[in-house]
Amino acid sequence: MEHHIAELLYKSIRGELSDFERQELNQWRADSPMHETLFMRLQNDEYIDEELGVFIKGEEKNSVLWGRIRENSILRKKKRFIRFFHWGAAAVLLLVICVSLFIKKGEQEVVPIAIQTILPGSHKATLLMENGKEIELSDSVRMSIEQGIIVSNNQLKYGDSIKELASGYYHVLKIPRGGEYCLKLSDGTVVYLNSDSELRYPVSFSATSREVELRGEAFFEVITDPQRPFVVNAEQVRVRVLGTSFNVSTYDKDYIETVLVKGRVGLQMAGDTQEWEVKPNELARYDRKNKTIEVREVDILPYVTWKEGHFLFKNQSLEKIMDVMARWYDVSVEFQDESIRNLHFTGDIKRHANFSIILKALTSSVNVNYKLNGRELILYMK
């Protein structure tokens, strides 16, 4: 049992828990204040480095183990490159020791410590129905909303039986900061909605058209229907597709971006009949100020891996990275030194990693420090 809990704690630190494992760990945390105290302490890498280090280094037989752990942790500086824990079996062994110590002290009073933890986003959304009713959708909830509309496995699904009942009705799915959700439309098209986004769509598409309205970011897997092109109205841009996989983002105040994974799409500016064709592995960027569209070939992975549970950055500025993190972890960010905004990083970040680990990784490789006041993050030069 101690080894199993240690593995769950290790996966939690790395952001690799499955839904079932997360429920199992949460149950273990709820079983005892002592368990919750240990969990909270392990969210703080300084505790691992300093307090546990005293114990491990004090045991001669574990000195080699501690050396391996410290050598491979984020505490080791890496120039402008995000690096995370790669402890492997050594880390699990360390956590077994931690769990064992806490269990042995189970009869003693354990005083919880106050460690500020900002958790990553989760599956949550608000469904706004035609009649004005609002329904909150949360992680792993299952329900039947109406005939043909169900929620299961973190997905809102519209089935075939809805077609005759909802002609002309619209729903809006709103995703808050720190949230994400999946939607399956009545035609079978699947939409993955990112944080701080919303999609307005017909409950049932008509026989002649399929149109939705997007604010924020979404990844679409569109069912092919040559007779009814699928259209995404993303503020000043109209994206027309026949059957394809693509990502649309309106987050940036200067640009609206569409990245095509496969298939074919055409872009139009609002009020314009000219259409720009986009091919797989191309980015179409609409300039809001100049009202122009640029299409070019790109590495599409940094634009779409959020759907797979990763943030992939390639020579990206800290300002842009913090924009992404602020939406997902629901925090505000302040730069006390303007020069910090333009520091650039390359790295692959687990989307469900603990926020403190990400901050440590980002700031340990450059001359930058940070402090958290509630949900306000302040970055400044050391």
Structure explained in plain terms:
By secondary structure, the protein is an alpha+beta fold. The protein folds into three domains: 1-36, no CATH class; 122-300, Jelly Rolls; 309-381, Phage tail protein beta-alpha-beta fold. The protein has nine helices and 25 strands. The protein has helices at residues 2-14, 19-31, 33-42, 45-58, 63-71, 89-104, 301-304, 318-329, 355-364, and strands at residues 122-123, 125-128, 134-137, 143-146, 149-152, 155-158, 170-175, 179-184, 190-193, 197-202, 210-215, 217-221, 230-234, 237-241, 245-249, 255-262, 265-269, 276-278, 282-287, 292-297, 310-317, 332-335, 344-350, 368-373, 376-381. The strands form four sheets. Strands 1, 4, 5, 6, 8, 9, 12, 15, 16, 19 and 20 form an eleven-stranded mixed β-sheet that branches. Strands 3-2-7-10-11-13-14-17-18 form a nine-stranded mixed β-sheet, with no helix packed on it. Helix 2 (19-31) crosses helix 3. It is globular. Mean pLDDT is 81; it is low at 51-63, 68-87 and 107-115. The chain crosses the membrane at residues 84-103. Residues 311-378 form the Protein FecR C-terminal domain. GO terms for molecular function: sigma factor antagonist activity. It holds the Pfam family FecR_C. This is Ferric-dicitrate binding protein FerR (Iron transport regulator).
